[in-house]
Design a protein that fits this description.
The complex is a heterodimer of chains A (662) and B (60). In chain A, 64% of the residues lie in helices and 7% in strands. Chain A is α/β, with parallel strands linked by helices and 662 residues long. In chain A, the strands form 2 sheets. Chain A has a 7-stranded mixed β-sheet with strand order 2-3-4-1-5-6-8, with helices on both faces. A two-stranded antiparallel ribbon of chain A has the order 7-9. In chain A, helix 19 packs antiparallel against helix 27, helix 19 crosses helix 28 and helix 20 runs antiparallel to helix 26. The radius of gyration of chain A is 31 Å and the shape is elongated. In chain A, 45% of the residues are buried. Chain B has one domain. Chain B has 1 helix and 4 strands. Classes of the chains: A alpha/beta (662), B alpha+beta (60). Chains A and B meet through helix 1, helix 15, helix 17, helix 18 and helix 22 of A and strand 2 and strand 4 of B.
């Protein structure tokens, strides 16, 4: 990083294609920077990794009032003292690229919390324009901000905007081209801190892009990069500065960060005085109350159970896997379509072996298409509708916070909610996402739990649909899954070495789901799912047909028969387990067929559902486990999961027979 | 612009990779990964995009 001073550029339109003004957008994540960036730049955007890092930075160009401008969207940052790589890159851009204007974007609803960074940017001597964004939401909440007074107190232009609605953009453009970098206010800290800073600054004679006060503060906060710059700029004078900083740090060793934070809070409080007003005893809007309930265990867990009951059990299980599947599969396919296509094929195709391939017991049309369209499609549609509703409401990050404490006990953090939630959509995709977890320990535990106890949407839907006819069976299945998830997680966290990292995330606002968003997401997911499953279901039908005509299928059923009999299931159930090798949902659909044929009672259905849910992951998930965690780990997980599935099935069967609970 | 369904981060669909090279589903999966939290978001379907652009044109 280079903090060496550069000559200030003069903003003129040079007509050569080079931008006369460089404008950097800075601010916390999630304040609408990117929306503002897009509104300012339009289509002229390039995105590339910042040199030497994996952090992407977007740059665009535009012409404002005849002046060509380069706009840079810096990564989110919380403070000028960087912690993450993104913050480091953002600071580097602000300091190294010497922007002519730095637009600090903040969220009007969190003005007090975010103003501390505005102070730091002004204090650093950067040419700041403050954009108070998301004003529309703030106004809706009854918050009032005296923008002219805030601008007067800060000594910089302050523009109220609602970037998503393009409100305030003309004023912002005007402020960019008319920016006067000589104007800004000076803020003082307490007498003792100011005296300490003065002592350090008095020893500094080098030239810096940042103000000396800001440099002194960063030195006191042990910023190694800044220390290196000062060492290079001061030469022989550096040891004296270093010693002075060390003395001050020692004197304030217990609480410097806290003291500085409190000092800044005091300044912000002074700024907010008369600027910001909220309605007396402002009643939190329903979304805020719901958000609070969702993250507190006492209210969050009942809320989660209610959501699962109505969303999964009633909507996906009873309606999707019950009513809609009964109509599509039972009435349309079995009643009309299959008899018609079978009779047509019988008339047109003279060869039995070919007829068998298309309309036989495991035929592409009579089995593959019927499973995909008649059984799986209505289930994934209702599941993705429910999923998209929750997603659009902002519930998932709250779920992450709610389960964080519980997940820590099984070696994970709330961050693992992302792959777990995605696992209910598709476990293969979710296994890939485990790579984003911070430690290898977390990745292994999450991969194992996904392979073991997280059923994918279609499998879950079919199982809910089947078991909803026997509520007791559904409770047994649910308790089994939860217990195994927690027990295996707990054991894995003891066996796999490593530490649990911290989890922190900023919560986006909770809102009423928008119908257009929900429908678009559901449609998109369904399209993806059908594109993925149809070819696989057809392939599975062909393989099963091959297995049937070569008699390999019957041999396999024969091999597995003793295992099935040990867990109390009829011979025919083996077929569903063989289907499960190809895809989890294909196996569950096989179970559906057995149940409609009346081959399974409540006990057998429960044992089969538990064993099949725990049973080995599908081929695609196994391949991805091998890619992500290596062959050894993937094979170990596969063997462990299969062994545990049948052991659990055996014990559960014995337990149900002994207690007679079903 | 896509708004991440998990963390609420707003990003441009063109800025991020879709699918993952090592995933066996990558040819069929067009999920868009949020650059901030890696949550997989479904892209806006071409049909919806087309309808939106028609509505926009007729509105302007």
């Amino acid at each position: 990083m280079n903090f060496g001073k550069k000559p200030a550029s003069t903003p003129v339109a040079d007509g050569s294609g080079n931008c006369a003004l460089k404008v950097a957008l800075a601010g916390n994540p999630n304040v609408g920077k990117s929306v503002l960036f897009n509104a300012l730049t339009g289509a002229y955007v390039t995105v590339s990794n910042y040199p030497g890092t994996s952090v992407e930075v977007a740059r665009g160009s535009t012409v404002i009032g005849g002046v060509s401008c380069e706009i840079i969207d810096t990564p989110g940052m919380y403070s000028i003292l960087p912690i993450t790589e993104e913050e480091r890159v953002a600071r580097e851009i602000l300091l190294h690229e010497s922007p002519d204007v730095v637009i600090h974007v903040l969220d009007a609803r969190n003005l007090e919390r975010m103003l501390a960074m505005t102070l730091q940017l002004i204090e650093a001597g950067l040419p700041v324009i403050l954009v108070v964004n998301i004003m529309d939401e703030a106004e809706r909440m009854g918050l009032a901000i005296d923008i002219p007074l805030l601008a007067e107190k800060l000594g910089i232009p302050v523009i109220p905007t609602a970037a998503a609605k393009k409100r305030g953009l003309p004023e912002l453009r005007e402020a960019i081209v008319g920016y006067d970098r000589k104007r800004h206010a000076v803020f003082g800290y307490g007498r003792k801190l100011e005296a300490d800073l003065m002592e350090i600054m008095a020893l500094m004679s080098g030239s810096y892009t940042l103000s000396k006060k800001s440099i002194a503060l960063l030195l006191l906060q042990r910023d190694e990069e800044v220390a290196g710059i000062v060492r290079a700029a001061e030469g022989d004078a550096y040891p004296a500065i270093e010693e002075k900083v060390r003395d001050k740090m020692f004197a304030r060793r217990d609480s410097f960060h806290l003291d500085l934070s409190l000092e800044r809070k005091m300044v912000v409080k002074g700024l907010m005085d008369g600027v910001f007003s909220a309605p007396d005893k402002r009643k939190p809007v329903f979304g805020e109350r719901l958000s609070r309930w969702a993250v507190r265990p006492l209210t969050g867990i009942p809320l989660l159970l209610i959501t699962l009951y109505f969303g999964l059990y009633k909507f996906v299980g009873s309606f999707g896997a019950g009513t809609v599947v009964d109509f599509l599969e039972g009435t349309l396919f079995e009643g009309y379509f299959n008899p018609w296509i079978i009779s047509l094929t019988n008339r047109v195709v003279p060869w039995e072996i070919v007829r068998e391939l298309f309309v036989g017991e495991y035929g592409i049309i009579t089995l593959g298409l019927r499973y995909a369209v008649g059984i799986i499609l209505p289930i994934v549609t209702t599941f993705f509708l429910f999923f998209s509703l929750l997603e659009d409401s902002g519930y998932f990050p709250r779920l992450a916070l709610l389960v964080d404490r519980l997940f820590k006990k099984i070696g994970l953090t709330g961050r693992a909610v992302i792959p777990m939630v995605l696992g209910f959509g598709c476990d293969t995709m979710a296994t890939m996402v485990t790579r984003t977890l911070e430690t290898m320990r977390e990745r292994i535990i999450a991969t194992l739990l996904l392979a073991l106890a997280i059923p994918c949407s279609a499998q879950l839907g079919v199982i809910l649909g089947l078991l909803s006819k026997f509520p007791g069976a559904l409770v047994v299945w649910g308790v089994c899954m939860l217990l195994i998830f927690l027990l295996v997680g707990l054991l894995a966290s003891k066996v796999v070495p490593g530490e649990s990292p911290m989890f922190y995330m900023e919560l986006p606002p909770m809102r009423l789901p928008q119908l257009s968003n929900v429908l678009t997401k559901t449609y998109s997911r369904m399209q993806w799912y059908l594109m993925e499953i149809l070819p696989l279901f057809i392939l599975a039908s062909v393989l099963l047909w091959l297995g049937k005509i070569t008699n390999f299928f019957q041999t396999l059923v024969g091999w597995m028969e003793p295992v099935m009999s040990a867990i109390g299931l009829p011979r025919e159930t083996t077929v569903a387990f063989i289907f499960g090798f190809f895809r989890r949902d294909y196996g569950a659909a096989g179970l559906y067929d057995l149940q409609t044929e009346g081959l399974l009672d409540a006990r057998q259905l429960t044992v089969a559902a538990v064993t099949l849910t725990l049973f080995i992951p599908c081929i695609a998930q196994f391949l991805i486990m091998q890619k992500e965690r290596g062959t050894k780990v993937a094979v170990a997980i596969g063997l462990f999961v299969s062994g545990l599935a049948f052991c659990t099935g055996y014990l559960l069967n014995r337990f149900i027979i002994l207690t007679g609970i079903l | 612009m896509i708004r991440c369904g998990f963390c609420g981060h707003e990003f441009d669909e063109g800025q991020v990779k879709t699918g993952c090279a090592s995933c066996p589903m990558s040819s069929g999966c067009r999920m868009v990964k949020c650059p901030r939290c890696n949550y997989e978001n479904p892209p806006e379907p071409a049909l919806v995009r087309k309808i939106r652009s028609i509505l926009k044109k007729s509105g302007s």
